[in-house]
Amino acid sequence: MTWDACSFETSRLDVATWQPQRADLIAAVMSILTEATTSSLPAPWQGAYDEQRASAWIASRDAEGPTLLVVDRAAQQPVGLLILFEEGTPDARHVRLGYVLAEPAWGRGLATELVAGFVAWCRALPDIASITGGVEAGNAASARVLEKNGFRMVARAEGDRPATFALSLR
Description:
By secondary structure, this protein is α+β, with helices and mostly antiparallel strands. It has 5 helices and 8 strands. The chain has an 8-stranded mixed sheet with strand order 1-2-3-4-5-6-8-7, with helices on both faces. It is globular and about 40 Å long. The two termini are 18 Å apart. The relative contact order is 0.15.
């Protein structure tokens, strides 16, 4: 299975691996990655994005692993990104997820819906053993999103390290 096949729908969202040749991808990244939305992300990702920085960020994500574009189905507008990192063996894969939603999408339950959709997609695959996610100290909303989807904290945030939440699928 390749991550190219990773796509799913929820009641309000269409989620699929982004296409680097997509003409509006740079604009989508610039609209999603703002000072406010990146404040809880790793330090190198924080701040505003112009075309050059967005393009470099897209290239870096493509080199590291799959990134999925989250589209609000009703508005037909990109509203978020789901960033995946894979570890483990072919028989027992472990996926680390990160996500970011554009400010207009905040407070609407879309993050919870997004993570629930991804968990359901992963549960349908016999080789994905677990999913983990990191939450920076002070980002209680993100911690609640993971907890609502069955994740449990396995390591508290310490210093520059985020808290780790995990969900076993086996």
